[in-house]
Amino acid sequence: MSDTEHRTGSDTGGTPDLPVTRPVALISGGSRGIGRAVALRLAEEGYDISFCFRGDEQAAALLEKELTALGARAFAARVDVTDAEGVRGWVTRTEEEFGPVAVAVTSAGITRDKPLLMMSDTEWHEVLDTNLDGVYHVCRAVVYPMLKRRAGAIVTLASVSGLLGNAGQTNYAASKAGIVAFSRSLAKEVGRRGVRVNAVAPGLIDTDMSAVLGDGIKEEVAGRTALGRAGLAAEVADAVAYLASPRASYITGAVLPVDGGL
Ligand code: NDP
């Protein structure tokens, strides 16, 4: 953990330096792609960032450095979101070291695309365990402290696949449809106690995840959007940052497509 303290004080030395409290954002799958863009965006908006990743330590270390350069405290935790206890420990440590989590974003996700007839049980379960159980584990861990404080915003990453369905993605689409229903239901449970829950449903976004599709498929999908192109991770991050912010104070249980008009 990089633990840069943020202090202000008079250059004359007459006033003692005082710690400045920054709100804390927790992001699953923050080391690459959309989660990374969200981390940078929220750091620019003044948040300290705690993010988890599964394996890519180099990417996590690089992001930690960039966040620190933006003036944020950064905590990179190697935690697999399928591990409920690991996620609980990460959230607890974040709150102990950085303070209450104001915003939680669930971006950790994987694909194992295949027609259903060729899909193995492992490919089905890996995707559901990571994408859907992972969201459950993160939200279960952050929501109680948020409810106690009667404040908090959760943004989940769904997908247009979960809204429209997509051949070759029965496992992924089912997990993302589950995230939509989960987010809307949780929003109804916790809204009266000051916690908002919204989902963002990206279309085709240029990240490592979509790189495996190959240029042909990407061009074909991009061609079906109103804007005629794939989106950028930063464009999804803007939507996430908006839903997480007080500017969205009357928005909860919403699913915001960020898909270029697919
Ligand atoms: P990337 O593959 O670029 O990044 C995935 C991130 O999730 C990485 O930081 C990865 O960490 C982390 N991660 C994966 N599995 C786990 C796990 N079990 N535990 C903890 N962290 C994990 O994906 P994107 O940024 O493209 O996708 C982000 C989210 O947006 C996903 O939920 C995805 O389904 C959704 N989405 C993406 C779209 C796209 O076109 N890119 C479209 C629609 C939705 P590590 O590197 O260590 O493995």
From TrEMBL:
InterPro entries found in the cross-reference section: KR_dom (IPR057326), NAD(P)-bd_dom_sf (IPR036291), Sc_DH/Rdtase_CS (IPR020904), SDR_fam (IPR002347)
Family label: Belongs to the short-chain dehydrogenases/reductases (SDR) family.
Region (Disordered): 1-23
Gene behind this protein: fabG
Native organism: Streptomyces stephensoniae
Lineage: Bacteria, Bacillati, Actinomycetota, Actinomycetes, Kitasatosporales
Top-level EC class: oxidoreductase
Keyword Oxidoreductase: yes
Its EC number(s): 1.1.1.100
UniProt GO MF annotations: 3-oxoacyl-[acyl-carrier-protein] reductase (NADPH) activity
Flavoprotein is among the record's keywords: no
Keywords noted in UniProt: Oxidoreductase
Superkingdom of the organism of origin: Bacteria
Name the record gives this protein: 3-oxoacyl-ACP reductase FabG
Domain Ketoreductase positions: 23-208
One Pfam family named in its UniProt record: adh_short_C2
